[in-house]
From TrEMBL:
GO cellular-component term (any): plasma membrane
SUPFAM superfamilies: MFS general substrate transporter
Transmembrane annotation, as ranges: 12-35, 55-77, 84-102, 108-128, 149-170, 182-202, 238-258, 270-291, 303-321, 361-380, 392-411
Protein's UniProt name: MFS transporter, UMF1 family
Keywords: Membrane, Transmembrane, Transmembrane helix, Transport
Organism: Bhargavaea ginsengi
Length: 423
């Protein structure tokens, strides 16, 4: 049977096309190199600048982790989900554009503005993820979620190629731009791409499942959260999954967000890093879609274990990594699984949650993910500074994948899991 997307599913998935430009250009590639150059010029050592980037990631994820459950609970009310999504979208796109106007020698201000950009991007994704329950059904979520990641990887390569071309042409003197201004142009391209291709999301995706508004929404949101915690045994399977996700997604997010810093510390040139990251995106697109298809055939949990196994090997391999060739191998391995493990985690969770409370529970989904992202970068930063070796920090992440895999074993199959509804 041919898999046909509805207009709502297409529009939802297309937001990944829009937002993934931020993920590759700001989170992974151009901004980290821009920041590392600024820090180096200011006399900050390579190890310390990597650690400061890790601490910054920890700070903004901690802020979002505190906000996500409350905002998510309020967003379950009729008409609120799109409003919160829009607010974070404006913050993210605005701060991303603002990066282009920060003095190149002010590494600290770069990290501050990056914090706001990351808050906007990850905050918008809290509500974007929860819209999955509004646009699709439990039977279609694996394929739709994986397709979103696949489209995202494909779409992100276009502004990435444009940005790389501008940077390389500026380096060779073909265009009258300094390398610094070429990087700034990449930040503006990212913001423009993100805004332009988010239009279908705003036009066609709407909140279908909701709770009727309350006269005191904030107070009621706290009461609903407290009630959920009191009756947490009713959602045992759901929270077991969140606990497993807390550990393994920590390792995934840390490796993705700090991969450029790792490569830079190995002495890999910026141009080589950009090319490696581009190829990684190309590989990640079909593999994300493949993960969705394999999950439908063999089971979501089984394919999640495949992703966890790949990342466990990545941690082991990273310990002895000392060349460009090693980094190529590592990047290709990450490319095969980074989109798939995230897509299947999102759809697995979406099938476990009660749809009318999807924002509240996706708030928990993101708080577990974000609090985990505090631990990973801190672990890498502290280990790197204590040992003077970034590779040791990457290797230390292996324990997170092992623990996450063990807990995942006890999570029930969504098709046989029926959470007890709220009273």
């Amino acid at each position: 049977m041919k898999f046909r997307l509805s207009k709502e599913e297409k529009s939802w998935a297309f937001y990944d096309w829009a937002n993934s430009a931020y993920s590759i250009i700001i989170t992974t590639a151009v901004f980290p190199l821009f920041y590392k150059a600024a820090a180096t010029n200011a006399g900050v050592s390579a190890t310390d600048s990597t650690a400061y980037l890790g601490y910054t990631i920890s700070i903004f994820t901690f802020i979002l982790a505190l906000l996500a459950p409350i905002l998510g609970t309020i967003a379950d009310y009729r008409g609120m989900k799109k409003k919160f999504f829009t607010a974070f979208f404006i913050l993210g796109t605005g701060a991303t554009a603002a990066l282009a106007f920060i003095p190149a020698d002010n590494w600290l201000m770069l990290l501050v503005v990056y914090t706001f950009a990351a808050l906007g991007s990850t905050g918008a994704n809290v509500f974007y993820d929860s819209f999955l329950t509004d646009v699709s059904t439990s039977e279609r979520m694996n394929r739709v979620s994986a397709l979103g990641y696949g489209i995202g990887y494909i779409g992100s390569t276009i502004p990435f190629i444009i940005s790389i071309a501008i940077i390389l042409l500026s380096q060779s003197g073909v265009i009258p731009l300094s390398v610094t201004n070429a990087s700034r142009a990449a930040f503006l391209i990212t913001a423009a791409w993100w805004i332009l291709f988010s239009v279908p999301m705003f036009r066609h995706v709407h909140q279908i499942h909701f709770i009727e508004p309350d006269p005191k929404p904030v107070a009621q949101a706290f009461k609903r959260l407290a009630n959920t915690f009191r009756e947490i045994r009713k959602y045992r399977g759901l929270f077991l999954f969140l606990l497993a996700y807390f550990f393994y997604i920590d390792g995934v997010g840390t490796i993705i967000s700090m991969s450029t810093a790792y490569g830079s510390d190995l002495g890999i040139e910026a141009n080589s890093l950009l090319i490696i990251l581009f190829v990684t995106q190309v590989i990640a697109a079909p593999f994300a879609i493949l993960y969705g298809r394999l999950a439908d055939r063999f089971g979501t949990k089984q394919i999640l274990y495949v992703g966890i196994a790949v990342y466990t090997f990545v941690c082991i391999y990273a310990y002895s990594m000392d060349s460009v060739a090693d980094f190529w191998v590592l990047a290709m391995l990450v490319g095969t699984s980074q989109g798939g493990i995230q897509a299947l985690s999102r759809s697995y969770f979406g099938r476990l949650v009660p749809k009318e409370n999807s924002n509240e529970f996706f708030g928990f989904y993101n708080i577990f993910g974000k609090f985990a992202s505090i631990m990973g970068p801190l672990l890498v930063g502290i280990t790197a500074q204590m040992t003077g070796n970034t590779n040791a920090g990457v290797f230390s992440l292996i324990v997170l994948f092992i623990i996450g895999g063990i807990i995942l074993y006890f999570v029930p199959d969504p098709s046989r899991y029926e959470p007890v509804p709220e009273n």
